[in-house]
Specification:
By secondary structure, the chain is of the alpha+beta class. The protein has 4 helices and 18 strands. A hairpin with a 5-residue loop joins strand 8 and strand 9.
């Protein structure tokens, strides 16, 4: 288990679910991961927290007014100056679709579409740093961008979010870089060249991996709760991985790290 007070600059620091079935999602993830779904907040339009052992692990939200939820998980990257980040993002051909907005004293959020077409959030912490526990049952364990324009993605995230990229593979079969702190220490997230396998019409996107002690057991539980399997569990050098979806269609990944 990894604990932290704040997320490293530029790293994934929060994740939330935009769901068309709020009550169903609250039950599903609580039963799957042992989370507790906190009461929706009228102050924040019905936004609610999932907690794990009393510690916030993810957020959730239903339809926003006349805008229906699209059943996706959104990853937020930590920034210490959200206005500067958004200016840099726009200069690098990103589109800001959710301008900077203060969330009480918790922090300031924004949402953008990166130059490769992936939606990603930015979060400048105030009193709320995001999730503070990783790599334990029901907590985040990895975040990853799948994109058809690998080089543009690397250029964008290194320039706008100040990542340092380390090449893990550079062949047509496996082109992947891990993103690290500016000092080169500590893996923050991954970027994969998915041009060979992303289905036509599916945009570039970020994925959240949730830690599970037993991927196969988690899949069995997920199926019993009405979820579905997109890609069956397989052993990789990075652990036993599977791609799944909740009953409303929100896709996420399961990971049991290698021993």
């Amino acid at each position: 288990m990894t604990t932290r007070d704040t997320a490293p600059l530029g790293s994934p620091c929060w994740v939330d679910l935009w769901t068309s079935d709020v009550e169903g999602s609250r039950r599903f993830y609580s039963d799957l991961f042992g989370w507790e779904a906190q009461a929706p907040s009228p102050e924040f339009g019905g936004y609610f927290m999932f907690t794990r052992d009393g510690v916030p692990v993810a957020g959730g939200m239903g339809d926003m007014g006349d805008v229906p939820a699209d059943n996706t998980w959104k990853i937020y990257l930590n920034t210490d100056d959200i206005d500067k980040t958004l200016k840099a993002a726009e200069a690098a051909s990103a589109q800001v679709i959710g301008p900077a907005m203060a969330v009480a004293d918790l922090g300031t959020q924004a949402v953008l579409i990166d130059p490769t077409g992936a939606v990603v959030g930015a979060w400048q912490p105030g009193t709320f740093p995001g999730y503070t526990v990783l790599d334990v049952q029901g907590a985040p364990t990895w975040s990853e961008l799948l994109t058809r324009d690998f080089s543009t993605a690397i250029d964008f995230y290194t320039s706008v979010f100040h990542w340092d990229a380390k090449v893990e593979g550079d062949t047509d079969e496996f082109r992947y870089s891990t993103m690290r702190n500016p000092d080169g220490e500590g893996e923050l997230a991954g970027v994969m060249d998915a041009s060979a396998f992303l289905p036509e019409g599916q945009p570039a996107h970020w994925s959240i991996y949730w830690h599970t002690d037993d991927t196969d057991a988690a899949i069995a539980t997920l199926k019993g709760l009405g979820g579905s399997v997109i890609a069956e569990a397989q052993d990789t050098p990075y652990g036993r991985l599977a791609t799944v979806a909740d009953p409303a269609g929100a896709v996420f990944k399961l990971r049991t790290p290698p021993t």
